[in-house]
Specification:
- The structure holds 2 protein chains of 2 kinds.
- Helix content of chain A is 63%, strand content 11%.
- Chain A is α+β, with helices and mostly antiparallel strands.
- In chain A, the strands form 2 sheets. In chain A, strands 2, 3, 4, 5, 6 and 7 form a 6-stranded antiparallel sheet that branches. Chain A has a 4-stranded antiparallel sheet with strand order 1-10-9-8.
- In chain A, β2 and β3 form a beta hairpin.
- In chain A, α1 runs antiparallel to α3 and α8 packs across α11.
- The longest helix of chain A has 32 residues.
- Chain A starts with a helix and ends in a 13-residue tail after the last helix.
- Chain B is an all-alpha fold.
- Chain B folds into 2 domains: 91 residues, Helicase, Ruva Protein, domain 3; 50 residues, no CATH class.
- Chain B is 60% helix and 0% strand.
- The longest helix of chain B is centred in the last third of the chain and has 28 residues.
- The chains are: A alpha+beta, B mainly alpha.
- At the A-B interface, α13, α14, β1, β4 and β9 of A face α1 and α5 of B.
C-alpha cells in the first residue's frame, strides 16, 4: 500500500512539474501575476510529493519488501540497517529518484529563499528548473520505475554490491548529487536571465551562492569517493581517471571556473556572456556525467546499472537542454555587453586566467574521456585513454594554476602592479623554496615530482596566509582586524590553502610511496621502510552478511609497538563477491596500509604493505576547500543579497 | 561451523588473486621495477579501466607473467610493449600513442589553451582601452522596484 502511494506521489509530482514548467513562464511573459505566483507553491508541492515517493521507497527497503523488484535485486534481509538505507540509492532506479528529489529540493529552496528576486525572474527560474524535473520524472516513470512489483516475491533478496556496502560510499552519492544537481540552479538562473534579457551584477550575486553550495557539495562528494577508493579497492589508489570519476570532475572544474567568473560579473559587470556560458556548460557536464554513468557507453567500475535505452533517453534530455540553452544564448548575445574597464594586470585578468586554466583543464578531461568513443566511431580504432594520458595532459594546467594563484588573488581590481603584489609574497616564496629544497635533500630517489608539488602547495598555503595578513594594514591590532575580516575573505583564503594542501598530498603520495609485496609466515617479522611488521595470526570471522579472513598484524617502529592492524579479505556469499578491507594506520605524515592476500602453498600468506606519505592531506585539503566555500556562503553580503527572507506565506512545511 | 566458513571462504575466494603476487616478483629488483612500470601502462582487457598491475583478474596475472618472461628473455621495455600490442591491439595501451588520429587527442589541450589565450588577450585589450560606459539611467520598471525595496 505504502509503495503504491509512493508510486502515485511520483506521478502526481510529474504532473505538478509539467504545470510548473509552463504556467509561470507564460505568466512572466504576459505579466500575469496570478500565473507567475503558481511557481512557488508548485515547487514546494513538487518537492513534498517527491519526498513522499522517496520515503515510500526507503520504507520498502527498510522492511525488506521483497515483492518489489528493486528491493529483491539490491537488498537482503541480513544486510545491516545503514546499507538498507543506502541501498535505496545504490542502484539505478533509486539513485535517479534521489536525483530528482534533490532537483526538486533545490527548486523548493529557490521558492523559499528567493524572496528578493524580481517576480518575473523568479517565475522563470522556477519554470526552467521544473522543465528539468519534467524530463527526469519522465525518464524515471517510463524507463526506470523503482516501484515495479513482482508477481511471485522470492524469500530473500540478492544483496547490494558489497563494494557499495561501506560507510564512505553510503554518503558519497547524495553529496555528489547535491553537487551535480545543484548546478541545475545555475543553469536555471542563466536560462531565466537570457529569457529575461538581462544579465547584471545583481544576477551574479543571486546565482553565486547556489553555485558555491553546489560546488561545496561536489567537493565533499568527490573527496568521499576518492577516500573510499583509497581504503576499499585494496591498493590505495585515490584517483583512477575513470570515466565516471571524470564525469564528476568536469562539473567540479567548470563549477570552480563559474564561481570565479561570477565574481567578475558581480563586481565589475564584465565576462557576462562567458559566465552565462559556463553556467550552461556546468550543468551540461552534470548531464553528460549522468549519461556516461547510466548509458554504459564508457564502461567503468561504477556503472552498476546501464542500459542503452536509458542512455538514449538521457542523450535526448541533454540535447534538448543544451541545444535550447545555447540557441537562446546565441540569440541574446547583445544583452551581455561588458561594462567594466580594467587594465591588463588586474584582478579581472587574473580571474580570466583562472577561467582559461580551469576550462581548458576540463576540456582536456572531456576529450580524454570521450576519445575512445570518438576513435571507435570515426577512425575505427579501439583504444584506451588511461591515467598516464591524464597525468601528462592535465597536470601542466594545474601547475600553472598553482603558480599564479597567490599572485592573482592579491592583485587589486581594475589596475594592479605585479611588483607590489610580489613584494607581499616574498615570505611565501622563501618558505616554499625552503620546503622544496628540504624535501629534495631528504628524499632517497631523485624525483622532481615531490619537491615541485611541495613547492607549489606551500606557495599556495603561505600565499593565502599572506593575502589575509596584507589586508590587515599597518601598526598595532593587526590580529584584531584579521578576526573582523569579512567571512568571504576568509573563505577565499581557506579554500585556496585547501587546494594547496591537496596539491601537497597528491604529489607527496605519488612521489614517495613505498610498496612491499611478499609471502609472510606467521610470527616472522619483516621490515618495510622504517617499520617492522609481524603477522601474528589469521582467523576466519563471520560478519552479518559476509565471511572474513582477518589477519592480526603488529606494526612497530624502532622496537616500540605503534598499532595492531586487522586487514581483512571478505566474501559476500549472496552477491558472490570478494572485497578487500585494508587495515590502515593513519597519520598526518604517512599512512601504513596493509592488505592480506591469499594463503600460499608453503603455509604463508601473501601480504602487501604500503607506506603512503602525506596521503591524508589529499582529503584534508578537499575538506578545507569545502570549509572555505561554506565560510564564503555564510558571508553577510549574501544574506543581505538573499534578502530579509520574507517568511513564505504558507510557512515552511515540515519534511 | 568454523570449518564450513573456512571451506566456503576458500571455495569462493579461489579464483581471486590480488594484483601482483609474491611468486611473480623477479629476483632482480631493477628488472622487477621495469616490469612494474610496463604493467602500469597496460590495460587489463577483462577489467574496467584498470592496469594489469592493479587488477585481480586471472588474465591480468597471465599478462604480468608474460611481461616478466619477455624481460627475462632480454627484451627492452619498448619491445615488451610492442609484443603485447601486436597480440592484443592498441586497446591494451593505457597511454595512447601519438600516431595517426590520436594526434588530435594529444594536441587538443594545448591548442585549446592557445586559442583561449589569444581570445583572452584581445578581450582584455578591448577592456583596457574601452571607454567607461555612460551611466545607464534606471528604467521606469527599475525605478518602481527600487522604491519598493527602499520602502521595506
Amino acid at each position: 500500500m505504502i509503495t503504491e502511494l509512493g508510486h502515485f506521489a511520483l506521478i502526481l509530482a510529474f504532473l505538478v512539474a509539467i504545470v510548473q514548467a509552463i504556467v509561470p513562464l507564460i505568466g512572466a511573459h504576459k505579466r500575469w501575476h496570478g500565473w507567475m505566483a503558481v511557481a512557488e507553491p508548485a515547487a514546494v508541492a513538487q518537492f513534498l510529493l517527491t519526498a513522499a515517493s522517496f520515503a515510500a521507497l526507503t520504507h520498502a527497503f527498510l522492511v525488506s519488501d521483497f515483492s518489489l523488484r528493486l528491493v529483491v535485486l539490491n537488498s537482503h534481509s541480513a544486510k545491516p540497517m545503514l546499507y538498507k538505507i543506502s541501498g535505496v540509492w545504490g542502484n539505478h532506479e533509486g539513485s535517479m529518484l534521489l536525483w530528482v528529489l534533490i532537483l526538486t529540493l533545490f527548486g523548493a529552496c529557490a521558492a523559499w529563499f528567493g524572496g528578493q528576486l524580481p517576480p518575473t525572474l523568479k517565475a522563470r527560474v522556477l519554470a526552467v528548473q521544473s522543465a528539468i524535473s519534467v524530463a527526469f520524472f519522465a525518464f524515471i516513470i517510463f524507463t526506470s520505475n523503482p516501484f515495479l512489483r513482482l508477481a511471485v516475491p522470492p524469500f530473500d533478496g540478492q544483496d547490494l554490491n558489497p563494494l557499495l556496502q561501506d560507510p564512505g560510499l553510503a554518503f558519497h552519492p547524495p553529496f555528489l548529487y547535491l553537487g551535480y544537481v545543484g548546478l541545475s540552479m545555475a543553469f536555471s538562473f542563466a536560462v531565466a536571465a537570457l529569457i529575461e534579457g538581462r544579465v547584471d551584477a545583481a544576477w551574479a550575486r543571486w546565482v553565486r551562492p547556489w553555485t558555491l553550495a553546489a560546488w561545496v557539495f561536489l567537493t565533499i562528494g568527490i573527496a568521499l569517493g576518492s577516500w573510499w577508493a583509497y581504503y576499499e579497492l585494496g591498493w590505495g589508489g585515490f584517483w583512477f581517471w575513470d570515466p565516471v570519476e571524470n564525469a564528476s570532475f568536469m562539473p567540479w572544474l567548470i563549477g570552480a571556473a563559474l564561481l570565479h567568473s561570477a565574481i567578475v560579473v558581480e563586481k565589475r559587470e564584465a565576462l557576462k556572456s562567458w559566465t552565462i556560458l559556463l553556467a550552461i556548460l556546468a550543468f551540461g557536464f552534470s548531464l553528460i556525467g549522468t549519461f556516461i554513468v547510466r548509458s554504459g557507453v564508457l564502461t567503468s567500475v561504477h556503472a552498476f546499472a546501464n542500459d542503452p535505452e536509458r542512455g538514449v533517453f538521457i542523450l535526448f534530455i541533454l540535447a534538448f537542454f543544451m541545444g535550447g540553452a545555447l540557441t537562446l544564448f546565441a540569440a541574446r548575445a547583445n544583452v551581455m555587453e561588458a561594462k567594466g574597464v580594467f587594465g591588463m594586470v588586474s584582478r579581472e585578468s587574473a580571474l580570466v586566467a583562472n577561467n582559461i586554466l580551469l576550462a581548458v583543464a576540463a576540456f582536456v578531461v572531456f576529450i580524454g574521456t570521450i576519445w575512445p568513443l570518438v576513435a571507435e566511431m570515426f577512425f575505427d580504432r579501439k583504444l584506451s585513454v588511461g591515467a598516464p594520458f591524464f597525468n601528462m595532459a592535465f597536470t601542466p594546467f594545474m601547475v600553472v594554476l598553482g603558480l599564479i594563484l597567490p599572485l592573482g588573488s592579491m592583485l587589486p581590481w581594475k589596475r594592479g602592479n605585479l611588483g607590489r603584489v610580489g613584494r607581499h609574497l616574498v615570505p611565501a616564496l622563501v618558505l616554499a623554496v625552503a620546503v622544496a629544497a628540504l624535501a629534495y635533500a631528504l628524499q632517497t630517489g631523485k624525483t622532481a615530482l615531490g619537491p615541485i608539488g611541495l613547492l607549489l602547495g606551500t606557495w599556495m598555503v603561505a600565499g593565502a596566509a599572506m593575502d589575509l595578513w596584507s589586508r590587515t594594514g599597518r601598526g598595532a591590532n593587526r590580529f584584531g582586524r584579521l578576526r573582523r575580516m569579512p567571512r568571504a575573505d576568509w573563505g577565499k583564503a581557506v579554500a585556496h590553502a585547501g587546494l594547496g594542501i591537496t596539491f601537497i598530498g597528491v604529489s607527496g603520495l605519488m612521489a614517495w610511496e613505498q610498496e612491499d609485496i611478499r609471502t609472510v609466515q606467521l610470527g616472522e617479522p619483516f621490515d618495510v621502510g622504517a617499520y617492522t611488521l609481524v603477522l601474528n595470526d589469521v582467523q576466519e570471522v563471520k560478519g552479518p552478511n559476509y565471511l572474513s579472513t582477518m589477519g592480526d598484524v603488529t606494526l612497530s617502529q624502532d622496537g616500540s609497538e605503534i598499532a595492531t592492524l586487522y586487514p581483512e579479505k571478505r566474501v559476500y556469499p549472496v552477491a558472490k563477491m570478494p572485497t578487500t578491507e585494508a587495515a590502515i594506520d593513519g597519520g598526518l605524515l604517512r599512512d601504513v596500509y596493509v592488505v592480506i592476500g591469499d594463503p600460499q602453498s608453503d603455509g604463508g600468506w601473501a601480504v602487501r604493505t604500503y607506506i603512503k606519505p602525506l596521503a591524508n592531506w589529499i582529503w584534508l585539503g578537499s575538506i578545507i576547500m569545502a570549509v572555505g566555500g561554506v565560510l564564503s556562503l555564510t558571508d553577510r553580503r549574501y544574506r543581505v543579497a538573499a534578502g530579509a527572507r520574507k517568511a513564505p506565506a504558507q510557512g515552511v512545511p515540515a519534511e | 561451523m568454523k570449518r564450513l566458513i573456512l571451506v566456503l571462504a576458500l571455495i569462493l575466494s579461489a579464483p581471486l588473486a590480488y594484483a601482483v603476487q609474491p611468486d611473480e616478483i623477479l629476483p632482480d629488483p631493477a628488472m622487477e621495477q621495469r616490469a612494474r612500470d610496463i604493467s602500469a601502462g597496460l590495460r587489463c582487457l577483462v577489467c574496467r579501466n584498470e592496469s594489469i598491475d592493479e587488477s585481480n583478474a586471472e588474465l591480468a596475472r597471465d599478462l604480468r607473467l608474460l611481461v616478466r618472461e619477455r624481460l627475462l628473455e632480454g627484451d627492452t621495455n619498448e619491445e615488451v610493449v610492442d609484443y603485447v600490442v601486436d597480440r592484443y591491439g592498441e586497446y591494451v595501451l593505457l597511454n595512447p600513442t601519438t600516431r595517426g588520429s590520436n594526434i588530435f587527442l594529444w594536441l587538443a589541450g594545448p591548442i585549446m589553451a592557445v586559442i583561449a589565450l589569444i581570445l583572452a588577450f584581445f578581450y582584455l585589450r578591448g577592456r583596457a582601452t574601452a571607454k567607461p560606459a555612460t551611466e545607464d539611467r534606471l528604467s521606469a520598471d527599475e525605478e518602481a522596484r527600487l522604491s519598493e525595496i527602499l520602502k521595506d
